[in-house]
Amino acid sequence: MMGALAADWPAIAALVRRAMNEILRVPGAAIPGVLAPTIFYCGLTAVFGNLTELRGFATDSYQSFVIPVSLLQGAGFTGAATGVNLARDIEQGWFDRLLASPVPRTVILAGMVLSAALRALLPATVLLLVAFAIGAHWPGLGGLALAVAGVMATATAAACWGCALALRFRTQSAAPLMQAGMFVLVLCTSSYAPLDLLTGWLHTAARINPVTQVLEMVRQGFVAGVTWDGTWPGLLTLAALVSVLGAFALRGMRRMAD
Amino acid sequence: MVEALLANARVVAALGARSIRQTFRRPQLAAPIVVFPSLLLAVQTGGAGRAVELPGFPEVAGFLDFMLAGAMIQSCLLAGNSGGIALALDLEQGFADRLFAAPVSRFAIVLGRLAGTAALGALSALYYVLIGLLFGVTFEEGLGGIALMVLWATLAAIAFGSLAAALALRTGTASVVQGMFPIIFVILFLSNAFFPAQLMLEPAATVAQYNPLSFVVDGIRDPVISAVSGEGAAKALLSIAGFAALGFCASALALRRRLRHG
Predict the structure, then answer these.
(1) Segment B48-64 mean pLDDT
(2) How far is it, in rounded angstroms, from Cα B69 to Cα B52?
(3) Given A54, A177, A183, which is nearest B50 (Cβ)?
(4) What's the mean pLDDT in B6-31?
């Protein structure tokens, strides 16, 4: 297993490097994706900041409360962008050349989703710097590490989702579907207010939505302390999401090759 | 003179119809107009619905009553931006050059795009009215108020579309116009589209009170939650006129520059 990974590593690294090059070569395309979560964060805190005055709100700092929403949104959009880039590569024929190369399908997928996981750190870093500057609580090293892990794993899951759709539809026109999928999953959680303060259908949706566990896992360091009870459901959810969506993406890749 | 006007009207109508068809054919143009504002409306209504309990929140039957105008204005802004993206794509792909070479007024070509945007603004306003009716929103001013809301939304879509058209004509690049997406959200967040300005945190609260977009939002919101006032309507109309004047002047300048320099 390790031997196979070592043999495939140069191919994965090359695909990751190619994805990173896109940021440097077409910065205009990357800037909106980097800035959007921070803009959304600043907007949410400015607009809904007084919600903390409602009885039952877990913290008096909405800046701290809403950080995980924007962190996960940034990760989701980065993952979706990986799907859009793959659709572009399929449209332009570059992906056919990649499939014709003597590289296992799993390695191609690994290269793409790993690049998404790394790229997601860019919007997350910008967001965290701005958040701390406007008064968000320091989550401690453990909380920060958990947030980073959550961002990278969410980006991985979102990239698998984006790639699965790109391989299914083979057109960049599927971009809204890739973006909206993660957008919905992240927002239909306790994103704006604690679960008990949500009203109507969103209360039910947030209870069922597994991403609520991921959001609460990332949030805990910013609003209270990190506990194992607050962590394991999020980790389990992320592992399940990556496994299921990764399987879908791999199936799409095999079908495309056939 | 009349013949020339009729010819231009035919061009505007044909290009407007093409613009609407194009929007519904391309999911990446249609989705932002309907999907994202609907999602935000649904999530914000459920997520921040208890905000109506905050002291100082306007008297409303429910948070959805308050939020409906925000969703409409968001949709109009995004319809304008989508129109700009489509115009930029026409420029990138050379279709606009063929139109410019045709014996029709060049500005009629831009007006055609804006006619499509206006229709999309009106359709999206009607869609949100329907959503409101389905989910129990009470329109205090009745049918007349609904008609006024649709009118404001349509005019706002034209005004925002003219600004996006100016950017498209100036840059000729779809990705640049698409890059306005985050800026649109900045402008929205710094208005009273999603929350009463007086309950927002500073400095956003102050900015929102003077943001012309807030006056347009109030114009659309008043028929739902209170009553239409002459002052509110005048402020909404003046704000839309201001956006439109800026957009049309910038479009005319950008068009002239493009025709001179290519």
Answers:
(1) 87
(2) 16
(3) A54
(4) 77
- Residue B194 with chain A: CB contacts under 8 Å: 47-48
Contact B46 A202 (CB under 8 A): yes
Range of lowest pLDDT (A25-39, A155-169, B161-175): A25-39
Q: B129 with B31: CB under 8 angstroms?
A: no
When pLDDT is averaged across residues A154-182 and rounded to a whole number, the result is: 85
Q: Range of B228's domain?
A: 2-261
Instruction: List CB contacts (< 8 A) between B213 and chain A.
Output: none
Q: Return the exposure string of A57-94: e unless at least 16 CB atoms fall within 10 Å of the residue's CB, then b.
A: bbeebbbbbbbbbbbbbbbbbbbbbbbbbbbebbeeee
Chain A residue numbers with beta carbons less than 8 Å from the beta carbon of B39 are: 180, 183-184, 187
Average pLDDT over residues B182-189: 84
Who has greater pLDDT, B3 or B17? B17
Task: Please give the structure tokens belonging to residue B227.
Answer: 């009553």
Nearest CB among A39, A44, A49 relative to B182 is that of: A39
pLDDT at A1: 47
Specify the residue for token string 């992240």: A186
Coarse DSSP helix, strand, coil percentages of chain B, rounded to the nearest 5 percent: 80, 0, 20
Q: Do B176 and A28 touch (CB under 8 A)?
A: yes
Mean pLDDT of the region B245-254:
90
Shortest Cα distance from B114 to chain A (angstroms)? Answer: 23
* Distance to chain B for A107, nearest Cα, Å: 30
* Closest CA in chain B for residue A53: B54
Give residue-wise pLDDT tens across range A73-120.
Answer: 999 988 888 888 888 888 888 888 888 888 888 888 888 888 889 999
Where are chain A's structural domains? Answer: 2-44+60-257
Look at chain B and report how many structural domains it folds into: 1
Chain B residues with CB-CB distance to A198 below 8 A: 46-47, 49
